[in-house]
Amino acid sequence: MNTKNEDPTVDLSWKRYLFPPLHPEGQKFVLIAAAVTLLLWVMFVPLGLLGLLATVFCFYFFRNPKRVTPVGDNWIISPADGIVSNITEVVPPSEIDMGTEPLTRISIFMSVFNVHVNRAPVTGKITHIHYRPGKFVSVAEKDSEDNEREEYSIVTASGQKVGFVQIAGLVARRIVSFVKVDDELKAGQVFGLIRFGSRLDVFLPKGVMPQVVLGQTAVAGETILADLTGEQTILKGEER
User: Fold this and answer.
1) Which of 15, 19, 87, 212 is the most exposed place for a label (fewest CB within 10 A)?
2) Can you state the angle between helices 45-61 and 27-43, rounded to 10 degrees?
3) What would the pLDDT profile of 107-120 be if each residue is shown by its tens digit?
4) Identified catalytic residue from 78, 107, 144, 198
């Protein structure tokens, strides 16, 4: 197995960690926080320091680090950074047309400290998108069925359909999507984000087994959740 990226252009310096790229969606929030910080600093320096911390956190929250996605149409890749919080059998939402039988659902919980940019789990065409308004409560399993969400399905070149769902949580107040039906996506490509803590669910095709376990840390665009074909070899990666 060759997972080592020997590209000499890869940035291994401290800048990679302290100054990751900022997603455009976060630019206005950082600018607003910076402006408020400046005003507070003029009024009362201790308040300005608090504002500075808030500005830094805002930048940190909307960071969009580059990811290297394993090459291969057989991989289902994690769409979110976070912890694998649940793996269970659930009937998928009817709006994404994945049938009426229970399918394996992998849930990934994102805290406010995780990267919140979401990435496509497979390469394929978006066939369904459905927005469901709802509450903003805990994304714990027992509470999340009534939460606001955006539901998607994507079909691969081999005809297999994968579902994924953005779920707003207790702190999250906005689901942002950058795609529409019939859009072609590559695995690891950015398709949306959720502001300030939430959850991503992935529905696997029938018969496909998960390759992650409860409590595992998932990295969007990099961690392999499942294998559509049974092949086990990763040949190389593509930076996205």
Assistant:
1) 15
2) 170
3) 999 888 888 899 99
4) 198
